[in-house]
Design goal:
By secondary structure, the chain is mostly helical. It has one domain. The protein is 43% helix and 4% strand. The protein is built from 2 helices and 2 strands. The chain has a two-stranded antiparallel ribbon. The radius of gyration is 29 Å and the shape is elongated. The N and C termini lie far apart (81 Å).
Length: 134
């Protein structure tokens, strides 16, 4: 008498999924990904923007402390690192580079050096403002 667990199958035929079952599972996965992927990329963009805002805040604070301590504006970002106001030149999270920062000179009559820092990233943020205006 044949084993009841193998009834209806040919000898040597293994268990598995049918093509229809696999297609249904793939369709469900594709639907879930189409919902989750845009949210994920939107979240990444907002994270980069928040990181840029935080980096600008920290560097501007370091510039102000440098000015208060020395009586002059720092020459560049490297001067802030050399004097240990920053550990390293920050990376612009939008451009992913330390070379794209735009240095803003002090208003006329306030000396030489770096008065402010702006991102060199092109494009606009989620709130519609250009990155370079932050």
């Amino acid at each position: 008498m044949a084993d009841p667990r193998h009834r209806g199958r040919r000898p040597g035929q293994g268990r598995g999924f049918t093509l229809i079952e696999l297609l249904v599972v793939m369709a469900i996965i594709a639907t879930l990904l189409s919902i989750a992927a845009p949210r994920y990329f939107d979240h990444l963009e907002r994270t980069r923007e928040n990181s840029l805002r935080q980096s600008l805040l920290v560097v501007r604070d370091a510039i102000d402390k440098y000015k208060a301590d020395t009586g002059q504006w720092p020459a560049d970002l490297q001067a802030l690192v050399t004097k240990r106001y920053l550990r390293a030149v920050p990376r612009d999270p939008i451009t992913d580079s330390t070379e794209t920062w735009r240095i803003v000179a002090p208003p006329s009559g306030e000396g030489e050096g770096m008065w402010d820092l702006r991102s060199g990233a092109e494009g606009t943020a989620k709130d519609g403002t250009p990155y370079g205006d932050w």
